[in-house]
Amino acid sequence: MSRKIIILGGGESGTGAAVLAKKKGYDVFLSDAGELKPACRDLLANTGIEWEEGKHGEDLLNGADEVIKSPGIPGSAPVVQSATKMGIPVISEIEFAGRFTNAFTVCVTGSNGKTTTSSLIFHMMKKGGLNAGLAGNVGTSFARMVAEHNYDYYSLELSSFQLEGIFDFKPDVAVILNITPDHLNRYGNDLQKYVNAKFRITGNLGEMDSLIWCMDDKILAGEMQKRNVGATMFPFSMKKKTGQGAYTENDKLIILTQNNEIEMTIEDLALRGRHNVYNSMAAGIAGQLLHLRKEVIRESLSDFQGIEHRLEPVLRIHGIDFINDSKATNVNSSWYALESMNNKVVWIAGGIDKGNDYSALSELVCEKVRALVCLGNDNSKLIKAFSDKVPTLVEAFSMHEAVRSAYYLANNGDTVLLSPACASFDLFDNFEDRGRQFKICVKNL
Question: Against a cut of 0.85, is the pTM above it?
Answer without folding.
Answer: no
